[in-house]
Amino acid sequence: MTLSPDAGGVFDTLLGLTRHGFGGSAGHGRQFMSWIHHEDFIAAIRWLIDHDDIAGAVNVAALNPLPNEEFMRVLREASGVSFGLPASKWMLEIGAVFMRTETELILKSRRVVPARLLEHGFTFKYADWRSAASDLCHQWRVAHDTASAA
To answer: Residue of 11, 96, 124, 129 with fewest CB within 10 Å of its CB?
Structure first.
């Protein structure tokens, strides 16, 4: 998941759920979530364009995929929300219908690591989820404060 503070994106959706008290774990919460901060995603793409000696598939993901339960806990902390109701599989299935998505996107474990980027010397600005979540929450607040003032 590429996470940016843009309206309607994955981060905006997760933050919205969190701010409304639904930021607990999804399902059993042990499924891994791979993510990348949007600034690192753009930097990695630019870096790959400049390093045309790298051929084949390259995982563009942050260094540390996290279990869903931990990912959401850190997001709650970064957004200043003290609790989040967990969602069981049946709850997610109902929510997925309304959001026009699939529960597989939430419940399937994805533990992607950027081995080739690291082997070739790429450096991440946001290597851990705590710093990325903090920055994204800050960017989201600034964007929404600016929009409210307009």
So the answer is: 96
